[in-house]
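wait is this the right file?? whatever heres the structure
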């Protein structure tokens, strides 16, 4: 038996059946317990079980837990397998998975009754303890693309960012897809309003993609670094590979074309059209009489006519094109207008851009050829341009937080892993932690996506992970339910009827 408010927070996972007795005279205790301030309480806690989950964005309070173990469903299970066995199973799950009490009871009852889940996505809570003794927990969704005909697509928000459930609804309305979207997760990186303000850029840059984005076979943004992307081919195959534009490209508008050769990548020329991505490390680009065109995605943002000897400051957004004035087709570029971009086939590690329906660049690469492959330098995360566009320092390898990643196997298994963070049950994960976990699950390739509060995993229309975020956080500093943050794009999956 424990007495006092602190015991509610500090002894709720000890390996003994115990009671908490006290009065919720402080607001934090009341929020954790899920009872009114100044209420008295007597709470039973089975051994090894944490009754409040994911504080300060709780998905379960102690009151919720108390209601569940007094429910008719609990009594049925207790009668079927016995109280001792039921509490032992609860403690085992609390240690290994951290499943909330209601879905745990649902899953256990279905298993005991021999009922099979009707979902095509195998979703489960996962968790563990790192070698340094700190806990992690999360959720995993798994599908078999060989046993069932899975299709995937990516969707970009029409006008402004939305949460992933909102993007799924928008995708269905826009695409006319009649199939049930059974799996979805957040995509790549964008320039958010805070970053645009910090960089001193016009508001028109808000929402600009920061990496490869191919939607319905159209290049909405070329690769900007050497980071990994999820590739969805026209035949439905999925791959993860690093992408860049070093092989060259062509830009078209108004029936006119400018080609940029492989040997004019990240270098100046007064005689040939050249281009710069965000791997380029210098603060300025030589203009020297060339016309400089700044792109954000596939939109022309600025056209600068330079003089002899003039330099132009680099901005960490999009490709920068540099074309000798006498080679620039008249009227091809107009500020605010989109252009068509054709990416040339790489000479090494070949694949065909023309075979791709969708692609979303994110990263970093976590696993390649069944081995850990975290290399932030070669991918460009350590460049000044990348660091300036990171809302949080993604180039650090020792920072744990909420993370989401996709893994695939050569046998056709696809897995999305979301590790929660900034909550009591989970410190989050580093890039190497994510690679270790996915490697244990047998993944041959894996990559990360936009982490932190943006990380969202949706299965059968339900958000599975615990977001450490609520946009009304100033309204209640003690406790608010989790809600997915707005993002710019998402990947969606379904089985063709």
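ok assuming it is, sequence goes like this
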């Amino acid at each position: 038996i424990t007495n006092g408010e602190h015991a509610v927070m500090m002894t709720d996972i000890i390996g003994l059946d115990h009671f908490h007795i006290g009065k919720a005279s402080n607001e934090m205790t009341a929020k954790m317990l899920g009872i009114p301030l100044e209420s008295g309480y007597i709470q039973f806690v089975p051994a090894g079980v944490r009754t409040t989950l994911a504080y300060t964005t709780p998905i379960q309070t102690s009151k919720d837990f108390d209601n569940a173990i007094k429910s008719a469903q609990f009594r049925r299970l207790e009668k079927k397998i016995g109280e001792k066995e039921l509490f032992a199973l609860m403690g085992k799950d609390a240690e290994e998975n951290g499943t909330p009490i209601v879905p745990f009871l649902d899953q256990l009852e279905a298993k005991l009754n021999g009922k099979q889940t009707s979902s095509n996505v195998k979703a489960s809570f996962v968790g563990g303890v790192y070698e340094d003794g700190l806990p992690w927990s999360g959720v995993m969704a798994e599908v078999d693309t060989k046993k069932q005909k899975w299709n995937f697509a990516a969707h970009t928000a029409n006008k402004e960012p939305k949460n992933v459930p909102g993007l799924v609804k928008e995708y269905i309305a826009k695409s006319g897809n009649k199939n049930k979207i059974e799996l979805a997760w957040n995509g790549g990186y964008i320039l958010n309003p805070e970053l645009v303000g910090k960089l001193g850029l016009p508001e028109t840059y808000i929402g600009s993609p920061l990496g490869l984005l191919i939607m319905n076979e159209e290049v909405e943004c070329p690769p900007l670094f050497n980071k990994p992307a999820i590739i969805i081919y026209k035949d439905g195959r999925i791959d993860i590979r690093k992408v860049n534009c070093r092989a060259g490209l062509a830009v078209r508008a108004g029936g006119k074309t400018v080609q940029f050769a492989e040997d004019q990548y990240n270098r100046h020329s007064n005689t040939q059209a050249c281009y710069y991505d965000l791997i380029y490390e210098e603060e300025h680009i030589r203009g020297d009489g060339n016309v400089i065109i700044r792109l954000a995605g596939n939109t022309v943002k600025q056209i600068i006519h330079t003089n002899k000897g003039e330099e132009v400051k680099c901005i960490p957004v999009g490709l920068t094109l540099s074309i000798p004035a006498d080679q620039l087709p008249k009227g091809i570029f107009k500020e605010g207008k989109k252009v068509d971009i054709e990416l040339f086939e790489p000479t090494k590690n070949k694949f065909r851009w023309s075979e791709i329906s969708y692609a979303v660049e994110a990263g970093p690469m976590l696993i390649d050829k069944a081995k850990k492959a975290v290399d932030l330098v070669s991918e460009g995360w350590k460049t000044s341009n990348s660091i300036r566009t990171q809302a949080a320092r993604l180039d650090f390898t020792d920072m744990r937080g909420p993370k989401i990643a996709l893994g695939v196997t050569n046998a056709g298994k696809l897995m999305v892993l979301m590790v929660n963070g900034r909550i009591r049950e989970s410190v989050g994960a580093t890039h190497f932690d994510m690679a270790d976990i996915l490697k244990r699950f047998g993944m041959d390739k894996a990559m990360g996506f936009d982490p932190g509060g943006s990380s969202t995993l949706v299965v059968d229309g339900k958000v599975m992970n615990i977001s450490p975020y609520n946009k009304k956080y100033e309204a209640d500093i003690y406790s608010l339910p989790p809600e997915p943050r707005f993002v710019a794009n998402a990947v969606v999956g379904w089985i063709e009827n």
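The chain is about 20% helix and 30% strand. so i think its the right one actually
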